[in-house]
Amino acid sequence: xxxxxxxxxxxxxxxxxxxxxxxxxxKNFLTEREAEIDNVNIWGLRRLAYEIEKQxxxxxxxxxxxxxxxHIIALENFYRLNENIIRFNVIKKEKG
Length: 96
Description:
This protein is of the alpha+beta class. The protein has a single domain, classed as 2-Layer Sandwich (Alpha-Beta Plaits), CATH 3.30.70.60. It has helices spanning 16-32, 72-81; strands at residues 3-11, 36-52, 55-67, 85-93. β2 (36-52) and β3 (55-67) form a beta hairpin. The protein is globular, with a radius of gyration of 13 Å. The model has no long low-confidence stretch (mean pLDDT 96).
């Protein structure tokens, strides 16, 4: 049974094209695993509280989706392997 999740990713401050490609790669990863993406909230470029990988700013994106729980580890591994993503989290939420 699918669960509802919220995931925030912080992308390196890259070109608009590279940022869009990274977001599309995440969305494709989710849809390949039959996730239902409810919303993609783009906060844009923000100053980080502390430097991460020598970056002082990051591009924040929040995704809301439903996914089978057995795919969450694969999603986290996908985030870790994507060199454009410098931080991420995945939180199980109650829909509503």
